[in-house]
Amino acid sequence: MGSGQSSLSYRTAFVELTNKTQPIDANNNEFWDQFWCDGPTKISDMFASVPGSEIRTLREESPGNLATLCYKAVDCLAQIAEDSFPTIQDQQTAINCVRLLSRIIPYLFEDPEWRPFFWSVLPAQNDSNSDVTSSVPLAQTLISSLCDLLFCPDFTVHSLTKPGPDNAEDMHTIDSCEYIWEAGVGFAQSTPPNAQHDENRTEIIRLLLVCFSETMYLTQSEARSEVNKWISFFSGPENRHVLPLFTSLLNVVCAYNPSSSSLPYNHLMFTDSREPLVEVALQVLCVTLEAEIPSLDTTGKGPLNSSTSDVGGGTNLFLNYMSRIHRDEDFSFILEGITRLLNNPLTQTYLPGSTKKVEMHQELLILFWRICDVNKKFMFYVLKSSRVLDVLVPILYHLVEARNDQSQLGLMHIGIFIILLLSGERNFGVRLNKPYTNRTAFDITLFTGNHADLLIIVSFELLALFYRMQSS
């Protein structure tokens, strides 16, 4: 009843916002607070209460109200991020703001006239901080607040001090490197799992991905000539959390083991809160490592310097940090984590469906490709390691599985690119002499031989398929 009543009042507030012909005063907090203080507690209810058609109507007929709604939501997130001890109500309010912005922002990106909105300087407000806040673009405030919330004690990370307002940690001076989410690269301390923290992180990262998606709404020529300022600020030195964010995202992905429990069918009885987090973390890594980003003017006026000085590329510290990883134990951790997830679909058991299967192989292959491209030391480590075949076999498996699906053409391209990259080294050819024994996983002709034979057979299957497609 409570959830239904909340959804109804939320729906009523949005309809009222849409039907208003006059701009609603930004200082009318009683009205605006309806959207995050008393909103639905489920994201599905949130999306159902805000139909896409009505967002477009609001965008066209009441642009002032839509702009105020976005500003107030970002301002609410900024205030909570500045609070040294957010209450449970504050945390739910932050999640509601995140969900609302995740719903609205894609419809703003649809309209070219709305895209500069988040990078414009807001008019000064009648408060003591107006001189400061008015000079900062809304997008910069949003990204900074979201990154702060990703390291907020008792909200997305475990607190290192005793609970209570008297021992609250100051969010402005907190060292987020002490709150990295998972042990691994650059961090040795393992944190206890917390499902609520994982869910909150996932919600926030999804909003970040929504912000990064602006490029999808551009034409091909625009996408090539314009820099994604969202990604540039997130991965640049202006973001004080960029190092712990990079480490947290990478470690969460590489430490994830979907089959960690020995109990069969456990994934059917328990909800895995870590898998959605791993999926969005993978997507953020793929996006931020995709291209070198030139230095930007964070006021949104465009690039200051289009040249790239090193492998890190401009201000993209994600690329810089990835290129600087050099310890063998870090390489082993990354390679083991990627191969574990890539080989998950090939896992064979006596009980059908008893182990959890994950579907993130395409993002994993993109991540592996980018790491090899950015960090040559990692690629050489892979080639001299016996686990290089643990990368090859799942790639061949996914090539076979995707060969008849036109929508998986991109997956086939990245798989073939990785094989081409690895095949340029002698050590890869030497490793192919190892006998191949796991014959049941592939939908190919049974054979007895080594991994080189497997590579040849799969290559022939693909070439024969392409020939038949061209002949038909």
Automatic annotation (TrEMBL):
It comes from the Eukaryota. Pfam families: Hid1. GO terms for cellular component: Golgi medial cisterna; Golgi trans cisterna; membrane. Coiled coil: none annotated. Signal peptide: none annotated. This is Protein HID1.
